[in-house]
Specification:
The chain is of the alpha+beta class.
Amino acid sequence: MRTCLLSVLLTALLWPPVLAATGMSVALPAPMLASPWPQPAPDPGAYLFSEKLDGVRARWDGQRLSTRNGNPIAVPPGFTAGWPVQPLDGELWIGRGQFELTSTLVRARNPADPRWRQVHLHVFDLPAHAGDFAQRHAALQTLLARPAPHLRLVQQRRLADHAALQRWLGQVLADGGEGLIAHHLHARYVPGRSALLYKIKPWHDAEASVIAHLPGRGRHAGHTGALQVRDAQGRVFAVGSGLSDAQRRAPPAIGSRITYRYTERTSRGLPRFPRFVRVRDDEPPASGQ
């Protein structure tokens, strides 16, 4: 019994080398999710900030790459060569405005597609590390000090005050970015929606399921005028703004999930000025379906 306990303790202390020697992977905790930046805003000095990358969330367990929901991602041979055995949390990203291409590559499950050469996993966290975010980021800097194919470290920065935060946010938005992410320095990695991890954008976004196609009027007559959708709370409303002419002719299918943006909510919880962003189809279909 004493020998067994000693073995367990040694394994815990030597965890990364043990994994490297055995080729084991570990069970990833559920992903940590960002909440909207609160108002009044907290002190920026307590956070590290990075650009919010509009890519496909991806997680590395030491051997395999998967989506946020755990579906395997088919990548080209050699894509993950030289990657560490430690679990990584990041975003598959090509560049600003390239979400559709990234999503297409993930869903297609065709590792022979040459466009995979443009994709990198931009790593922002170590989900199995027991330290706070400042410690996790320091560990990531050491871990990724040597370049590896298709692996990049998301750079974090300190911002002195709210004015500095607004200046950088404005610059990112002007350059075509989505916004910023704020990690509290002392936040542990906790699965689920976090009160210490925030996304900072000039709008809110959410998801809903398409339940009907509403007919268009005027120049949209004969095509879809708006999508009738239902959100996770059961609220039903229409999203018409943001649809392209092509999407009005061939709208997102009934049952598909969409992302929409809005400015605020009414007293009934309905979004004001909802605007279609995209079909949320970055998760590949389940095997056999």
